[in-house]
## 1
Amino acid sequence: EVQLVESGGGLAQAGGSLRLSCAASGFTFDDYVIGWFRQAPGKEREGVSAISSSDGSTYYANSVKGRFTISSDNAKTTVYLQMNSLKPDDAAVYYCWGNLGSDIWGRGTQVTDSS
């Protein structure tokens, strides 16, 4: 079974940092994309960032460019989202997503504004 498991959410101070992790398992594909979406209360789910396993190309939403960095480990089975210079608007449930044969979603991890 293909699974994505997020971790690393928590309280976020304005200007602070958090690192989210997404551990992928149960697949054997070499070419895939894994990314992060987020959903704040009362808002639609939005794409935040993604990374391609084939060439390492990345995508960032305009709202997080220059503040967030997506990366993966050497085995390309764990994807990280380093979030710096956090803003209150970054508070949301962050979901890991992957196109691993089909669209796979993690259960989400909460990032809460501590201000």
## 2
Amino acid sequence: QVQLVESGGGLVQPGGPLRLPCAASGFGFSSYLMNWYRQPPGKEREFVAYITSAGGSTNYADSVKGRFTISRDNAKNTVVLQMNNLKPEDTAVYYCNVPRLSLYGPGTQVTVSS
């Protein structure tokens, strides 16, 4: 079964860290570029970061540069979004995505609040 499953979301205080793993199955994970997207409450889904298939190149939205890091482990079929110095405006449902397969996971909720 082709699927993505995000985890690691929750409630965190401003300035805190959170790590979001996304587990992939059912397709050749190591051959695909992977994205993270997020959808803030009441807003459209927006791009957060991508990483190329071998992990050699990454790119970030300006709003998260210097705070978020995307990485992947092709042996474990996992892509991870490490989020540091979180802000209330980072509150959103976070999704991992395989653009070539038009595939999203169900998402994980991140809430940044004191």
## 3
Amino acid sequence: QVQLVESGGGLVQAGGSVRLSCAASGRTFGSYAMAWFRQGPGKERELVARITSGGSTNYADSVKGRFTISRDNAKNTVYLQMNSLKSEDTAVYYCNVVGVWGQGTQVTVSS
């Protein structure tokens, strides 16, 4: 059974940084794209960043230049480095691999 477990969220001040991790288990994900989504208060879930099996990345315009997605295939883990955080980045962040969702991790940015 595929499972994804996110970690690393919390309360951070505007301008600060946080790194999220998503550990996958149940199968090997090296040949699959991995992605981070987020859902802010009263908003729909949106794609934040995606990384292919070959390491190509794409980002939402709102996070370009501030967030970096990376992966460690040996650890079956995807990361999201979030810098220069803004209050509008406050959301529950989810990782997604092969259609499976993690439980989410809350990131709250205080202004």
